[in-house]
Write a structure and sequence with these properties.
The complex is a heterodimer of chains A (98) and B (166).
Chain A (H helix, E strand, L loop, with lengths): L7 E4 L3 E6 L2 E8 L2 E3 L4 E4 L1 H9 L1 E5 H11 L4 H17 L3 E3 L1
Antiparallel strand pairs in A: 1-6, 1-7, 2-3, 3-4, 3-5
Chain B lengths: L8 E4 L3 H4 L2 H13 L3 E5 L14 E5 L11 E5 L6 E10 L2 E5 L10 E2 L3 E9 L4 E2 L8 H9 L2 H16 L1
Antiparallel strand pairs in B: 2-3, 3-8, 4-5, 4-8, 5-6, 6-7, 8-9
Classes of the chains: A alpha+beta (98), B alpha+beta (166).
């Protein structure tokens, strides 16, 4: 899967996400029905930082820059982490390219 | 300044809902029904036996063009504990209602109808599927049976008979 850093990504409208006990619980919907016993995902605090920036209005490259500044880390390291998680989220249709 | 980014995307499947507290589950269910979506999950507890047994998969639907009425099995959030409760409506008067578990002896405390977040529209048990529960013609009768404790005592008798058979 190729992820373009100049593209916009946003959270799918077919998911419900809620912060529960320090984690973000994400439940995808199939035809308007969420099934807590078949698929449920959890992101930790830093995963949430990425999730919240995927607003569909900021290009991915800017998201990575923002996170690198926030987390005081190198752009390349953050980029690797972001791309890894983004691939996972896109594969599971939790995030879509705009 | 935050720490270095340790990103993990953990994938939870299967019995994950059992790890959620009743309060968290309630909030999640509310998120779904508020957006007019349905949600299904496996139940915990025995208060709605024999209709709903522990581990049965239930679907909670939002009230759209429908209003809660006696006999409906509703999902509501307890005013004090904020826990998710799935019980049958016994009585509605004005903006408040009284619910009760079929397998419970006492009624729940009075709640406002605004605490109701949806109704049980389907039950998938081990050997059966019950659909369109809201339009069951006998639901008011079941509410009366439940209110007078008939279902509660029937459950007790059935339990004793099962013990005797064993």
């Amino acid at each position: 899967m190729i992820i373009d850093c100049q593209s916009y990504y946003s959270v799918s409208k077919e998911v419900i996400a809620r912060k529960i006990e320090g984690e973000l619980v994400i439940v995808p919907m199939i035809s308007g029905v969420g099934n807590l016993d078949s698929e449920m995902y959890a992101l930790n605090e830093t995963g949430v930082a990425i999730w919240e920036k995927l607003d569909g209005k900021t290009i991915l490259d800017d998201v990575i820059h923002e996170l690198a500044m926030e987390f005081n880390s190198s752009y390349d390291q953050i980029k690797k982490d972001v791309l890894d998680i983004l691939k996972e989220l896109i594969t599971r249709e939790l995030v879509v390219e705009k | 300044m935050k720490n270095k980014l340790p990103v993990t995307c953990s994938i939870v499947k299967g019995h994950s809902v059992l790890n959620l507290s009743s309060k968290s589950l309630g909030k999640l269910v509310k998120d779904f029904t508020q957006k007019k979506n349905k949600i299904k999950f496996k139940t915990k507890g025995h208060s709605m036996k024999p209709l709903i047994k522990e581990g049965d998969m239930i679907t909670i639907s939002p009230y759209i063009d429908l209003y809660p009425s006696p006999g409906d099995i509703v999902a509501y959030l307890n005013l004090i504990t904020e826990k998710l409760i799935i019980h049958r409506i016994m009585k509605i008067s004005g903006n408040s209602f009284i619910a009760k578990g079929d397998n419970c002896f006492n009624n729940d405390m009075i709640h406002g109808t605004n605490c109701i977040i949806g109704y049980v529209s389907q039950i998938n048990g081990n050997s059966f599927i019950k659909k369109n529960l809201i339009s069951y013609p006998c639901k008011r009768g079941l509410a009366i049976f439940s209110a007078i404790g008939l279902i509660f005592y029937l459950n007790k008798i059935l339990k004793k008979i099962k013990c005797l058979i064993k």
